[in-house]
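chain below, 210 aa
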Amino acid sequence: MKFRPDDVAAVMECDPAVSTEEEAKKYHMGLHVVSMYREAHELWLAGKKDEALALNYECHSKTGADIHPGATIGKSFFIDHATGVVIGETAVIGDHVIIYQGVTLGGVSSSKGKRHPTIGNNVVIGTGAIVLGNITIGNNVRIGAGSVVLKDIPDDSTVVGIPGEIVKHKGVSIKNELQHDDLPDPVSDEIDALKKEIEELKKQISELKK
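prediction:
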C-alpha cells in the first residue's frame, strides 16, 4: 500500500494516539482508507473503472468505509477511525479536511450530474454528521457531531443541529484543529442536564435512607 507523505503527516498531527509514522502505516485504519481511495481514484481517472470499483469494494469490506473512487479529495486528508464513512461519487473535498467516523457526504438525487457536496479547505466534520446534496461548505467550517446539513454554509462558520444551523460566523478564528469537542451541542447539553438531575436525585434518596 502506498502512503502519501501529506496524508501520513495529517495522521501524526491530528491523532495523539499514534506514536510513530510506522505505527500509522501499519495500524491506522483511516490512513489505510485514504491510501486505498487514492489508488482507486488514480485508476478511475485512467479509465480503469472496474479495477477502481474492485479496490473500493475491497476497502469497504475491510474497513467499513465507502469512498467512491470518482470523488475528488485534496491533500492532507484525515479520517479518524473510518468506520461508517460514506463519500459519494461527485463529492469534492479540499485540503486539510478532518472527518470523523460515521460521516456521510451523500446525494439527494438520482441524476447523473453533480449531486454530492463540495467541501472547502480546513473543514472539520464531527462524528455522525450528514451533509447532503449539491451544496457548498466553505473554508474553515466546523460541523458538529450528529448534525444534518442541507444547505450552503459560508466560510468561517460553525454549524450544529438537525437541520444544521450556523451558530458562529466569523466570531472566532477557526483553524484546522482536532478539538471539535467545544462545539455547541444541544443534545449533549440535554444529556448533561439529565445526568446532573439524576445525581441530585441519588443524593436525595441517600439522605432519605439515612
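Confidence is low (pLDDT under 50) at residues 173-178. The longest helix spans residues 186-209.
thats it, cya
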